[in-house]
Amino acid sequence: MSGLRVLVGCKRVIDYAVKIRVRPDSLGVVTDGVKHSMIPFDENAIEEAVRMKQKKIVKEIVVASCGPAQSQETIRTALAMGADRGIHVEVPAGTDANLQPLAVAKIFSKLVEKEKPDLVILGKQAIDDDANQTTQLLAGMLDWPQGTMASVVAAKDGNLTITREIDGGLEDISVSLPAVISADLRLNEPRYATLPNIMKAKKKKIEKLDPEKLGVDITPRLKILNVVDPPVRQAGDKVPDVTTLMEKLAEKGHL
Amino acid sequence: AVVSTQSTGSASLLYKSTKALRAYQPVAVTCKRYLADAPNTSFARGIFLGELREEELFPYPDVLNEEQKETISMMMEAGHSFFQETNDATANDTNEQIPEDQLDQMRALGMYGLMVPEEYGGIALTNTMYAKFGELTGEYDLGLGIHTGAHQSIGYKGILLYGNEEQKEKYLPSLASGDVFACFCLTEPSSGSDASSIKTRAVLNEAGTHYVMNGSKIWISNGGIAEIFTVFAQTPAIDAKTGETKDKITAFIVERAFGGVSHGPPEKKMGIKCSNTAEVYFENCEIPVENVLGEVGGGFKVAMNILNNGRFGMGACLTGTMRMLIARATDHANNRKQFISNLREYQGIQQKIARMNLLCYANESMAYMLCGNMDRGAPEYQLEAAISKIFASQAAWDVCDETIQILGGAGFMKDVGIERWMRDLRIFRIFEGTNDILKLFIALNGVQDIGKKFKSAGTVGAMMGLARSKFLPAAPLKNKVHSDLSSSVDMLRGDISKFSVAVSEQVIKHKKKIIEQQVLLNRIADVAILLQSMASVISRSNTVAEKGDTSEIALANAWCADSHQRIKILIEEMGDSDVTKVDDAVLDVGKMSLDANGYLAKSPIGC
What we know:
The structure holds two protein chains of two kinds.
Chain A: E1 4-9, E2 12-14, E3 36-38, H1 40-54, E4 58-67, H2 71-81, E5 85-90, H3 101-115, E6 119-123, H4 134-142, E7 146-156, E8 159-166, E9 169-176, E10 179-183, H5 195-201, E11 206-209, H6 211-214, H7 242-251
Chain B: E1 3-7, E2 10-14, H1 18-22, H2 43-48, H3 66-86, H4 89-95, H5 100-109, H6 127-140, H7 142-155, H8 157-162, H9 165-176, E3 182-185, E4 201-204, E5 210-221, E6 228-238, E7 245-255, E8 261-263, E9 277-288, E10 292-293, H10 299-310, H11 312-335, E11 337-338, E12 341-342, H12 347-376, H13 382-407, H14 409-412, H15 419-425, H16 435-454, H17 460-469, H18 486-510, H19 518-546, H20 553-575, H21 577-596
């Protein structure tokens, strides 16, 4: 298996180490002045594509991101890790918070039409909405096989064998190409960009598109009603025996 | 014939015959000026003449375009990842070594060619970008910082500044990639601060093809691991005017592969332990004449300019250190409770934290003003570089000392991780020009400029008239400054005027003997450093305020008010004959102790 073209997706989100604060209007979280970076699972996705290129299975890596102007930084990071060229589907700042998996899957399905990749690799889920839907929706739209939550990917006899991390343990599947995969944390150890690669990335091309040009309607189908902090954990009670426990549970109306 | 061409920063010597070599005529390096040769344009030089030069202050240098800012941000991220996930500063210190496979990662990361042009395989960072990246080694691992700094900041900097095309093409690619390491070989057992007294000699052979070098160098960073050495040695040169043969220093690019180069075991040091420090020996080492760096006989200036050019890095690097230490100190003060409240509630602690912040702010302001002005093309900056180095090294030491004090006993414990910084920081006041020598350099440079100004005046009266004439405290700044900074600006203007007059009086009083008056010269340097720091914080906070953020003005005003008090005392001491009597009495104590070869008094209990 060689000479494949891979389309990798990445998203710019609030950095995993940042302490999240709910906005005063309770319709979202504070993003202004907050550190943003690429989703860790997306780093796994790009790393896997780069490794496949090093093994000569993949010939070209195209990285795409949907988001506001700053998404370009995320694409540049992917280019610095080893992707060949980028596509930025620009969504105006402010509306990007409501860009939902269905819309992203539609956009990527248009990109697949345009770029004709043999393989699409995405991160398994974004760490802001934790949806874990885009890969599955996209595979459905394209009618391609999917290998989600991948922790091992190997090429074998023209197919890809994938080990998936699922609730019950590990599941091995085989998918034929073209296929859609989503990367999990233990898939690989992502490299950090080296300074020479950051310099080379400056010369790589980033194509600018927008949902309108692609003919995609990104109107949200879900409306966010309210965003609140998780309730503060209440102190518990220690009870001496089961009888008291039953009494307390009945008192609180849990029985 | 000997053909010697002057181009920006390089000289190319094409030797056609040995006869021509023997008739060598020393040629001045016109492009790389040093000391009094440089045009008198910089802020720090102007204060001695009573001038407040605004060109370098307003606006505070903003030398990075959007693309460069994005690039350096990405590079910083990569750097942070490397230092957090791969480098283990504690292990490097304990093992006194950086692991070999980590050196490979550093090569891949591009850490060894940060300022080399792209055409030679480097990262082509500007001074300001290099300084910012240098904050990483300051924040995480100073020993590693010296390893990479000795390589590129001074080790092969000479080739960047003075190398001809052939030398650059031959050496820069493998140096930039880190495949080979470089080091800077000046210091000898009997020549430290007195660099021009070095004894290593390089003599041209009969055939005129090679210099033969003999001598030994001491305390050379990377000396044990380098393949390329920038070496300074005495070479016999014929004085153009007198026809006499005199020794003059020449700089050479020496390859270990030439043979006759060996090194001693790694020195056991107080700190920066993972950085290799070794003696380097040259025994009949044959160096092709093509490897002369710069002009034959022009080596001293090459050495001084390499050091001058690299000095800006220290201010930025130690900003990273101080910021990290302040974070540790404030975290401890916010969480540690003693007696009735957290340490943060006590004035003693608040004062320490405040002073640490002011020192870091003043240092950072000077450091980035320096590299920003270098990037803007300032024709000279040797005083600012010296000031920045002195201030940064002393401030970082003080900040670390106070951090340990705030942490108490824990600060002393290896596992807590602060004591290593104290050990690593001590050398910064010593190497790259001791703070003591640099202070004298600053003061004497200023004194020399004042002396030049007086040359035209005949009488003492005329001299003092000259001294007082240039700067009228009433004259306002040409640039508009935020109104909240106006009192600090007034202090700066007044202090520059008083300083210039006070130093002029001392120049008239002592004349040439001022060179011996080190107590006085140190006071002069201390004031110059404080004036530079005041100007830098005013400039920085003003430029930030112009963009809509006035939060730094309080910091700037606090620093200026504090500095103003110290300057007042220092200037008073300069001119006070009673203080001079005290100085002399104290110096006598020093001389007696030196005569006695130790402490002067006997035990008070009589046995």
